Structure formats: C-alpha cells, structure tokens
C-alpha cells in the first residue's frame, strides 16, 4: 500500500512540475513562455488594483486579434477597480472564448487565467490589455507549446570494430547528452534520436540525458565489452575449413610431386653411372 501511495505521489509531483506559470510583467514588453502539451498553463496579469477593464488577446496568423478573455465592470456600478468590485460582490461581465471556455478558470486573488489540457493551437502571441481610469497598458507573452520528454530508451549494437549506443525519446526540440562513468562524452542537437560510437572494449555506466525547454529525463545502463559474434565465429570456422580443405590436396600434390622428382633424379643418376661404365669398357 505504501509503495502504491509513493508511486501516486511521484506521478502527481511529476505532473505538477510540468504545469507552467507565465507572467505579464512590464508594460509594453514581450517575453517567451513555454507550456507543456496536455498540462496547465497559468497566465498571470499585471497586478494593479486600479484596473477598470481587462482584456486578453491572441494574435492570429493573419495579424488580427482574437479576444480570448475579458473582464469588464458593469457600467451601472461605479467602483474604482474590478478587484474591489469582485470583493464587494458587484457583478462583473466575464467573457471567455469558446476555444478555452470549458478548460479554463480565472483566479481573482492573483489575477491569473489558468488553461487546462494545453494543446498545440494554444501557441501564439498573447497580449494583456488593461484599462485604468485615465490610461491603458499592454504587455505581451509569446507562448510556445512543446510535448514533454517521454520515457528514454537506450539500445546497443555491436559491430566488428566498435559499439554503437542509441538513445531516443518522445518530445519536441530534444537535446541529448552522454556521460560515461560520470564523464561527459558528447552533446548534440537532434529532433529524433541520437547515437554515439565507442570502442568495442568500452565498459562502465553510460547515461543518456534528454531535455527540452520544459522537461528532462535520463537513463543509465551498464555497458559491457561486446561478446564475440556467433556469426563471426561461424564465418571464421568456415574459412578455416575451406583453408584446411585446400591445404590437404595441396600437401598430397606436393608429396606426389616431390616423390616423382626424387625418382626422376635417381633414374638420371643411374643412367649417368651406366654411361660412365660403358665409356670405361670401350677404352
């Protein structure tokens, strides 16, 4: 039971870490904001108690603005700000665009709009536009939605002269890095997968670290020298058998040739002696 509770707590902590909070800071400024696909994105407006109206726009591809969210005070009431109106239970006119209506909520205590289950179309430039009693201010956020890092997979392929280690994971804009026994081997940028080539005798703990702008993960495996390939052994044995098969007939041929040469040599020597003997008799 404790193990199950611990796993559930770990999953909840992991999910919470992927929830992002981005703030509209200085007026007439723009900054980047990264959000995790499928998780929460909280957009905090500028904290200013003198708002009379608040609007949140999203810039579309054609340059036009879509009103995503707005809070306007009811004009028949005359209070200094929407925060004070909320605290005094004065009705406010709140509008939410249909694209986020069923998956968003607004918190007045910190002036934050939270969008649940963020999708890729939620990416874009958002503008917070507030109207005060005597002026208007706006601030921009460039929201970028990325798929978080998934499980990391590491595999090994052995060849005749090297070991290749492959690493892959789900997610957007992935950056890979490798360590062997705590020492950084290589860092690189790749959208799909990454691999590294090592000497075939390399061993130790090799780690593949994967990260993007919103999450990270790592997997470590124990690397052992590659065993001798069975295919390589079979090929070597086949080559040896072929070589022995050739050496046998060659050895027999050489013995036969050598014996014949010795026999011919004996015949020549015998004929030479007989020739000398006939010459001596004639003389």
Automatic annotation (TrEMBL):
Q: Which domain of life is it from?
A: Eukaryota
Give the UniProt keywords, A-Z: Glycoprotein, Membrane, Signal, Transmembrane, Transmembrane helix
Transmembrane portions of the chain: 228-253
InterPro entries (UniProt xref): CD2/SLAM_rcpt, Ig-like_dom
Keyword Membrane appears in the UniProt entry: yes
- Leader peptide range in chain numbering: 1-17
- Where would you find this protein in the cell? Membrane
Q: Where is the Ig-like domain?
A: 148-222
Q: Does the keyword Transmembrane apply?
A: yes
Kindly list the GO CC terms recorded for this protein: membrane
Q: What's the name of the protein?
A: Uncharacterized protein LOC109079530 isoform X1
User: What species is this protein from?
Assistant: Cyprinus carpio (Common carp)
Which gene specifies this protein's sequence? LOC109079530
């Amino acid at each position: 039971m404790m193990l199950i509770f611990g796993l559930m707590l770990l999953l909840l902590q992991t999910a919470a870490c992927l929830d992002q909070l981005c703030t509209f800071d200085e007026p007439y400024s723009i900054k980047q904001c990264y959000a995790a696909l499928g998780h929460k994105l909280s957009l905090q407006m500028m904290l200013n108690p003198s708002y009379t109206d608040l609007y949140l726009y999203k810039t579309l591809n054609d340059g036009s603005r879509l009103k995503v969210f707005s809070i306007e005070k009811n004009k028949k009431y005359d209070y200094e700000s929407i925060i004070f109106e909320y605290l005094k239970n004065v009705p406010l006119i709140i509008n939410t665009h249909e694209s986020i209506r069923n998956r968003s909520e607004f918190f007045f205590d910190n002036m934050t709009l939270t969008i649940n289950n963020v999708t890729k179309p939620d990416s874009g430039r958002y503008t917070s536009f507030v109207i005060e009693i005597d002026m208007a201010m706006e601030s921009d956020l460039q929201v970028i939605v990325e798929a978080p890092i998934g499980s990391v997979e590491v595999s090994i392929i052995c060849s005749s002269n090297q070991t290749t280690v492959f690493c892959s994971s789900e997610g957007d804009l992935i950056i890979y890095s490798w360590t062997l026994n705590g020492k950084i081997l290589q860092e690189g940028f790749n959208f799909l997968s990454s691999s590294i080539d090592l000497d075939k005798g390399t061993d130790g703990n090799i780690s593949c670290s994967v990260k993007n702008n919103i999450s990270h993960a790592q997997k470590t495996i124990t690397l052992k020298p590659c065993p001798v390939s069975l295919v390589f052994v079979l090929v070597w044995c086949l080559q040896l058998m072929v070589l022995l098969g050739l050496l046998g007939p060659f050895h027999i041929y050489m013995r036969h040739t050598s014996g014949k040469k010795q026999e011919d040599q004996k015949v020549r020597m015998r004929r030479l002696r007989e020739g000398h003997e006939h010459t001596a008799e004639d003389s």
